[in-house]
Amino acid sequence: MGKRGRSNRWIPVFFAALVVAGAWCRVDAARLKDIADVEGVRPNQLIGYGLVVGLNGSGDGTQAQFTIQSIVNMLERMGINVDPKQVKVKNVASVMVTAKMPPFSKIGQKIDVVVSSIGDAKSLQGGTLLLTPLKGSDGKVYALAQGPLSIGGFAAGGAGGGVQKNHPTAGRIPNGATIEREIPVALNTKNQIRMSLKSPDFTTVIRAVDAVNSLLGGKVAFPVDAETFVINVPRQYDGNVVGLLAAVENVKIDPDQRAEVVMDERTGTVVMGANVRLAPVAIAHGNLSIQISENPQVSQPAPLGGGQTVVTPSTQVSVKEQGGKLILIPEQNTIGDLVSALNAVGVTPRDLISILQSIKAAGALQAELKVI
Questions:
Q1: Average pLDDT estimate for 205-230
Q2: Which residue spans of the chain are classified as CATH 3.30.70?
Q3: What is the pLDDT of residue 7?
Q4: What is the pLDDT, as a whole number, of residue 316?
Q5: pLDDT at 13
Q6: For the residues 291-297, what does the mean pLDDT come to?
Q7: Which of 9, 109, 246, 352 is the most exposed place for a label (fewest CB within 10 A)?
Q8: Are the C-beta atoms of 270 and 358 separated by less than 8 Å?
Q9: Which candidate, 84, 22, 9, 8, places its Cα nearest to that of 260?
Q10: Which residues pair with 319 in a beta bridge?
């Protein structure tokens, strides 16, 4: 009973946090730039194949034939002819280099790169990436990467064991790539702008269109679907689409949300949106506790009886079922009514998940359940 008393003390705190989480889910007056993206204004992924040198014997093994071939090809381009059979690769590792090229990147700008081993190297610590072209999906080179790696971990050990922190076969090079080719985006020549919501919703897209039209003083924005709407560039913004986007992206919109209940069974966390509604429902909850105790007893024979001293088991089983409470949730209830009712029942977060699943199965929970 003492243990149960301790657990009950944090139940009100949990449900108080639940109420706050439900309140936070109601997003008021969000900026359009926070809930929508301009079509065509996005980062581009780059990838390349390179070599990391200067490793302290932790590079690829002799089974990584592609590393040997890469070294031979590199040396031949530098005018050095070598026999592939004489190449040792323990200080070299083959890697894939990836980067994200931001929109409107200009020649000479620096971007970060991520370097990951593709062979059987044990660690890239202390290595330096040689000059590596980074290509886009069209096969063109958009950046060149080179520089010393920052691993953020280590690996060390011997024949009997070892220790490792983080992933020593992957690292980063801050500002390790230089932009060599631009991706042209001629915004000011456009006569129409398309914007896409990050969370598609018919109500939200209509609110966005109305807000933009109210700002620009005319019907220049039109919805396409639940995710996309278009803005015809007004005459006063001809040749100044950047100024139009600067004005539009700060428009305040109240985004609508679906009624959802998100549950994490591993941690017992439950987050409910403010739009969650319940039909009239009754909830009963009770606990059944079974306690089994063993008290071995020693049985000794009478004096001169010729018997033996033995240990006889003694098992005591006690079953206690706590009386459940029946709570009726009336019509026109809110998220606060649900929290108050479940708090009155005295459930734990784990029990709450089961109760919500049962309410959903009964058809009384007007929301989507998501278990993560």
A1: 91
A2: 186-253
A3: 40
A4: 62
A5: 40
A6: 60
A7: 9
A8: no
A9: 22
A10: 290
Least confident of 9-18, 231-240, 267-276, 360-369: 9-18
For tokens 């031949």, what's the residue?
76
**What's the mean pLDDT when you consider all of the chain?**
78
Q: Which two tokens stand for residue 67?
A: 């590393």
In this prediction, residue 106 carries a pLDDT of 92
User: Token pair of 72, please?
Assistant: 């031979």
